[in-house]
Description:
Blueprint: E1 6-10, E2 16-20, E3 33-36, E4 39-42, E5 73-77, E6 101-108, E7 111-115, E8 121-125, E9 131-133, E10 139-143, E11 149-156, E12 171-172
Antiparallel strand pairs: 1-2, 2-8, 3-4, 5-11, 5-12, 6-9, 6-11, 7-8, 7-10
Amino acid sequence: xxxxxxxxxxxxxxxxxxxxxxxxxxxxxxxxxxxxxxxxxxxxxxxxxxxxxxxxxxxxxxxxxxxxxxxxxxxxxxxxxxxxxxxxxxxxxxxxxxxxxxxxxxxxxxxxxxxxxxxxxxxxxxxxxxxxxxxxxxxxxxxxxxxxxxxxxxxxxxxxxxxxxxxxxxxxx
Length: 173
């Protein structure tokens, strides 16, 4: 028995997350389901016992938002992006340079942040929930409302040696 192709739940970072792909059925349901206008969001413990085709459990880091590694420092920042000035590169599959991590900070509205997998993860970012971009991880964003505003900060262990993004305007922090 298999579950639907896309599942929504609240990740440990409190960001809404959609996990795509076919997953084996729940073996132990342990908490309630919350309904929202965007679909169903589940508590993390509801999925204890679910594994993906790569045998990753909900308890693994594969389903949580990553964190900027300890000791990394911000070195560049983009201007504020809106529906009027977002570079098309960000709306399509792309990745960061090796050694650079990013943090997507939404100041207004909401943003869909897709991390290509497997498994593919889709986070809904808001002013209360930022997104982390791992080095060289393929991803894209999509504005979910016409008033969305966001910017990206770039981090590296050694900012003096880090490569700045070439196709996105940035300023030094």
